[in-house]
Amino acid sequence: MAHRRLLGRLTLLAALSLPVAAQVPTTAVIGTPPQPTWGQLSAQQKGVLAPLSQDWDKMENIRRKKWLGIADRYPSMKPEEQQRMQERMREWAALTPEQRAKVRGTYKDFQQLPVEQKQVVKQKWEAYNSLPSEERQKIRESGKSAKLLAPPPEAPAPESPAEPPPAEAGRN
After folding, report:
1. pLDDT by residue (tens digit) across 156-170?
2. Cβ-based neighbours of 93, under 8 Å, separated by 6 or more
3. How many CB atoms lie within 10 A of CB 112?
4. Measured on CA atoms in the order 52, 54, 60, 65, is the torsion positive or negative?
5. N or C: lower Cβ tally within 10 Å for the chain?
6. Same domain, 88 and 107
7. Is residue 6 a part of any domain in this protein?
8. Is pTM beyond 0.85 here?
């Protein structure tokens, strides 16, 4: 009799818990929560992010969040860092969506390089950056800057002498 009651309770408990387990959560947060529109930004944020004003309301929330983080850090930056940030924002704002996608792809590719290759690219960048602006402009116009700054090709793996390539018989 006790066994039967226990079995009945377990069955009832299982039956009651099934609908709860089958429900899809309705409060799941997917992605980045909505970020403020340009009109909702503070005067300080608008001042810092001014180069992005035309594109702000078209940006994805994740991008707005990134830029808002930069705007929050901006007052604590040194004046030369602030100037560099403003220049970079203006350059970014001037890019087409295709150019921005290309830059993001290049950055992603760079992040996936081994540490040694990253160092080589950084050294090449420093050497390029130390050139006079006229010479850098000539390099950019010639299209050689991409080759100059490209990571070195990976060394091919040495071939194993244990297995010689198959000989092609009967061909002349």
Report:
1. 544 444 444 444 444
2. 51, 52, 54, 55
3. 9
4. positive
5. C
6. no
7. no
8. no
